[in-house]
Amino acid sequence: MAQAEYDLIVIGAGAVGENVAERAVAGGMSTVIIESELVGGDCSYWACMPSKALLRSAAAVRAAQNLDGAKQAVTGDLDVAGVLRRRNWITSDWHDDGQVRWLEDAGIELARGHGALVGAKRVAVTGQDGAVTELTARHAVAICTGSAAMLPDIPGLREIDPWTSRDATSARVVPRSLAIIGGGVVACEMATAYAGFGTKVTMAVHSRLLGHNEPFAGDAVRESLEGMGVTVRTGVGVIRAHRTDRNAVLTLSDGGRIVAEQVLVATGRVPRTGDIGLEHVGLTPADWLSVDDTMLVAGSDWLYAVGDVNHRALLTHQGKYQARAAGDVIAARAAGNAVADGPWGRHVATADHGYVPQVTFTDPEVASVGVTEAEARAAGRRIRVLDYDLAWVAGASAHSDRYRGQARAIVDEDRRVLIGATFVGPDVGEMLQSATIAIVGEVPIDRLWHAVPAYPTVSEVWLRWLEAYGRDSA
């Protein structure tokens, strides 16, 4: 058996693992990263990037159709083949040569194969040819293996060979009809994308759409989806599935049925930790890994878990944020340097706790950061809720002839700072960073008065929020 030793071993070469490795190398550590699939991981090939490519073209057409002078130029149907070509280009047609070159340029070694712990600081890498190499870490091992789609235990579901998010974002052929089980981000984004392609989409949703967002966000997305021809059935579960010669059939809890050519399951995520040897270091296989704010696994002084596997915030940007902190702290501890692990220190992921931004790329987009009204009230916080119709700001009329949107700010009355914000409307994802800075920076309301929004932009909603807060406080 071949053997090698490094300062740091990273299992998983997705965006998170790449960032851990890059920061550790910058800190002077010899680092190897292990990958059994494509370097770049889900975000590059099966999630963030391809899904947004599938969504963008139809969104651009709809935006043009809502603007006089532009709508007259839209004379044909969406070129679905062109959308898929663009998606293939964005994913480099599922080749990772460019990402591998980036690793080489960054001084990170790559081990192709499946990595699994075989003991403390020891990882066995099994290559495609079956050859095994045992790697030893002088200082740390970082698990960055991500998460996978969860398939609920529904009789017959596995037998109909349903799609997961990976299949939906990498499809080469668009189905004529699609049933989607779930109502979260993946479900809503893929319903938007496939409806734009002309697919007949039906959603089976246990509660409501985008249940972790403010209720008005899910309501707006539902209205939009239904306007695109999507059938949204809420308050139902799927109790059984089977396939006929041509279609899949879902039996619902209310006695109804959905018949579709293909089924997409979008009901949550599970950690990719079932086959990475956790049992050899006293941990439970197939479980989420509990960590502290430096991403160090509970009870360990050498094992780190970064990104989806720690279940703190299942978002690429948040995982990369964790990775920057983890890579830096691993290097600092290895060198015996001081560790800045207090709140907002460079070696911790403080923003995982109540400051997480997210954009759902439906039409309208939903952009949120911080807490919702319900979460704030459940925590017993004394708050004021500021709601504003985005169609009333001057920038909305400049943006679209039929602009529809809403914005909500949550103010902590005891500290007079924002603790939550939600925007719903066209392209509102680009407005989110300003709210994130205000919330993370705990910018006082009185100081926000001096952050003047440019006119005419949709960002003028910030002034309207402040005016409403001032009136209500008088």
UniProtKB/TrEMBL annotation:
Cofactor(s) required, per the database record: FAD
Stretches assigned to the FAD/NAD(P)-binding domain: 6-317
Domain (Pyridine nucleotide-disulphide oxidoreductase dimerisation): residue spans on this chain: 356-462
Keyword NAD found: yes
Gene3D superfamilies (UniProt xref): 3.30.390.30, FAD/NAD(P)-binding domain (3.50.50.60)
Domain of life: Bacteria
Protein name per its UniProtKB record: NAD(P)/FAD-dependent oxidoreductase
Organism per entry: Microbacterium kribbense
